[in-house]
Design a protein that fits this description.
Layout: E1 3-11, H1 15-23, H2 25-31, E2 34-35, E3 44-48, E4 60-69, E5 73-80, E6 89-100, E7 103-113, H3 117-138, E8 145-147
Antiparallel strand pairs: 1-7, 1-8, 2-3, 3-4, 4-5, 5-6, 6-7
Helix pairs in contact: 1-2
């Protein structure tokens, strides 16, 4: 069965400000993971975190930028596994930014989960927490509205 994670959150900031947190490597590291991301279609990059053997994850997410429409849409592949070239998570992350009165609505869709139910469940909660981290980094002390 193919499963999808979907979250939407509103940030009281212009799309350009939110976009920076989704596309600048050093800012991404503050709310997600260390990485070598560059906002260029076709760029292959990695996110790195400590291994999680219980989820058959070696701590490296192998990614490739699939689509960029500045300040509106970002999509990249998201692949990982236990190591030694084995991939048990082959999915796609898509961010969509929509300018709204007073800020930006950001939608996340992480699709393509077929195996690895444990990591799917963990990531469903984790993405929402990370989206809230962006809100805290942009405006410390201000809450954002979110729908999980």
């Amino acid at each position: 069965m193919n499963r999808t994670i979907q979250h939407t959150i509103f940030y009281a900031h212009a799309p350009e400000i939110v976009w920076n947190y989704l596309t600048q490597s050093e800012l991404m590291a503050e709310w997600l993971m260390e990485n070598d991301f560059r906002p260029q279609p076709g760029h292959e990059f990695q996110f790195r975190i400590r291994p999680i053997p219980d989820f058959e994850f070696d701590g490296i997410v192998h990614c490739k930028v699939l689509e960029i429409i500045p300040h509106k849409r970002l999509s990249y592949s998201w692949k990982g596994g236990p190591g030694d070239g084995k991939i048990n998570m082959d999915s796609v992350v898509t961010w969509t930014l929509t300018a709204k009165e007073g800020g930006t609505e950001v939608s996340l869709i992480h699709s393509g989960f077929i195996e690895n139910q444990g990591i799917f469940n963990s990531m469903r909660e984790g993405w929402l927490k990370n989206m809230r981290k962006i809100a805290a980094l942009i405006s410390p002390g201000i809450q954002s509205d979110s729908k999980g």
